Amino acid sequence: MCTLAFYYRVIPDYPLVVAANRDERFSRASASPQRLDEKPLIFGGKDLVAGGTWLGVNERGLIAAVLNRRAAGPMTKHVPRSRGLLCLQMLRAESAFQAYEGLKREHALNYQPFLLLVASVRTAFVAYNSGRTITHHALDAGVHVFGNSSFCGATPEKLSHARELFSAASGPLRQRLAPTGVGEKRGGAKARLSSVDYLQRILGNHDLPAGSHDPRDAICVHGEDYGTVSSSIVFQDSAGGQFQFYHSSTAPCQGGYQPIEAPAPL
Questions:
Q1: How many domains are there within the chain?
Q2: Distances (CA, A) of 123 to 58, 90, 100, 140
């Protein structure tokens, strides 16, 4: 996954909202979101090569996502562990705090460059490997946007462009997901679908930042052997903690998002 927008405690009644594109080699096989594990119940996309996930949730109210970062220096020489397996490992935790404690025992040299997001309603953090260490940052409430160049200084224009678009979407999303009638606690299925349609226009954006001629700098990427292969939008409902998962098995500019049932919290 290479573009991820995270609305953390920004939208009333939906404390966690994620909108993400997965950019990958077209030859790497994957499957749409499904049950990945039972104890705890984990739900997310499945990498059919290594068996991990790039974006998933669990029944304990945890969401995790991993982005493959562009390398700022030499790649590790030994065969690394799949970054998707690390993401899946995070989703086996009881809480974001437990995931954080487990991640502190990992070694950066065991992985190719990554950025990892782990979040619950109470706690959220990002981690990335840089050189020989994995660095962690706690996240405050707000709009957070990450890409494959996050924290490595490469093509900051792409990230700035994406942040501008997703940040500007906060107001329209609040309006779409607000209660629409007397006694209604939150926006329902129609409100979420309207929000999905709105976010799809951003996730399917092909504009390049000023001065760039690299197609990888678009939010929706189309290359010869690499590009945006799928896209997901996830809402967590504060009323019951239920995750609402919407997934496109192709680039967001080419197809719609289908709702897929995700696990209910304990």
A1: 1
A2: 15, 14, 10, 9
pLDDT, position 9: 97
Position 246 scores a pLDDT of 97
Q: Residue 107, SS3?
A: coil
266 found inside a domain: no
> CA 113: distance to chain centroid?
16
Our separate counts of H helices and E strands in the chain read 5, 13
Q: Higher pLDDT residue, 266 or 225? A: 225
Cα 124 to chain center, whole Å?
13
Query: What average pLDDT does range 68-93 have in this prediction?
Result: 80
What do you get for the CA distance between the two ends of the chain, in Å? 28
| SS3 state at 22 | strand
Residue 118 falls inside a structural domain: yes
Q: Is residue 54 part of a domain?
A: yes
For residue 185, pLDDT over 60 is answered with no
Helix/strand/coil for 231:
strand
* CATH number assigned to the domain comprising residue 19: 3.60.60.10
Residue 145 has φ and ψ, to the nearest 5°, of -125, 130
Radius of gyration, CA atoms only, the chain: 17
Residue-number span of the structural domain to which 170 is assigned = 3-261
